[in-house]
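## retry 2 of 3
previous attempt timed out at serialization; input unchanged, resubmitting
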Amino acid sequence: MNVMLIGAQGSGKGTQAQLLEDQLNLKACASGELLRDAIARGTPLGLAAKPYYDNGDLVPDDLVAGLVLERLKELGDASGIILDGFPRTIAQAEALDRLLAARGKTLDAVVEMQVDDDALVKRIAGRFTCAGCGEGYHDAFKTTKSPGVCDRCGSTQFVRRRDDTEEVVRSRLAAYHAQTEPLIDYYRHLGKLKTVDGMAEIGAVHRAIARALDGDKL
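## retry succeeded, writing output
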């Protein structure tokens, strides 16, 4: 089974992809993680993608497709892939169809996780992480018990990702609406689109995805 999750940044695709990966023996293929790893390692694809990523712009199709192609070659014993963050455009979707067809495979289902923009900005822009142990916090939803002190390790050093600001988040959302939303009609036309409420509690979202996939495997 090959599944794709589609939704804006912060909609919970990564969390749901992990649940599906564990339960369906799928290989996670998160374009964001692939990009960050390539950028951190300074690979040719990573260096080429870095300016776009830092500015909150969509990375060109050929660069992302190259990273996904590498992952498709590493399936091992996995029964399929679960795509998170790719494709983002019609051109990428068509490229994906060709990549899968060349391996005798197809994309079986696409799950759209619907979210509210303002709620997403609030959810993402306040995130920060302990520099010592990596524990995650949020200005509004999960503050430290003692101001400026990590609950887990006691560190007083915290970091925020440069792309977790309101300006960058809204820029990404604008790019999503302009360039990625056409995929919804693309996959609806192919009869592969399922839609769930991405703003619900994690377990509720997962159950909705299970129903959308008609998955007794879940």
